[in-house]
Design a protein that fits this description.
Layout (H helix, E strand, L loop, with lengths): L1 E6 L5 H13 L4 E6 H7 L6 E7 L8 H13 L8 H7 L7 E9 L7 H11 L3 E2 L4 E5 L10 H19 L1
Parallel strand pairs: 1-2, 1-3, 3-4, 4-5, 4-6
Helix pairs in contact: 1-6, 2-4
Length: 169
């Protein structure tokens, strides 16, 4: 199975989750882990499963105004922020029932919102069929690090998603 894992990341937390997902999907599959920047250059995708993730900002997917300060702060800390996931979602061509999954990173608060739900909604509008419910991975603070156990959580989730795909064939 061909799998593309695409991520938006500012402080490296979402990128770390994406890499863990990619590694967990890698057994017996062809996996590419791509930043939004790389993914935009690789469209259209030739994949059986597209997994997209982003940080949660202001209760949902990042926006230009939520990324401004965060991008500047990330650069000061030595990170290279990617383009926003909204850019990717707009550029994705419509498909006919291709499989997808969505994830986000966020502070572990019930009021934090979810970028993953917005990503999933946008992907369904493009014709994707969700292989799993949107998943959330927690960060300890806005800039990170990831909360304890979240890399393992990402690996387990990825194996479940791929396992569901293999049993639905």
């Amino acid at each position: 199975m061909k799998i593309n894992v695409v991520y938006e990341s500012l402080f490296g937390n979402t990128a770390a989750v994406a890499r863990a997902i990619g590694e967990a999907c890698g057994t017996n599959n062809q996996v590419a882990v791509l930043s939004v920047d790389e993914a935009l250059n690789a469209l259209p995708f030739d994949a059986d499963l597209l997994i997209v993730g982003a940080p949660t900002h202001a209760f949902g997917m990042t926006r230009v105004f939520t990324r401004m300060g965060a991008s500047e702060e990330a650069r000061k800390l030595g990170h290279k922020p990617t383009q926003g996931v909204r850019t990717l979602l707009k550029a994705l061509p419509s498909v006919t029932q291709d499989d997808a999954a969505a994830f986000d990173t966020r502070i572990d608060k019930s009021w934090a919102g979810s970028a993953a739900r917005g990503i999933a909604r946008a992907m369904r509008r493009k014709g994707y069929r969700l292989a799993a419910e949107p998943e959330h991975f927690n960060v300890a603070a806005v800039q990170g690090p990831l909360a304890e156990g979240e890399i393992e959580h990402a690996s387990e989730w990825a194996r479940r998603v791929v396992g569901q795909m293999n049993t639905s064939d």
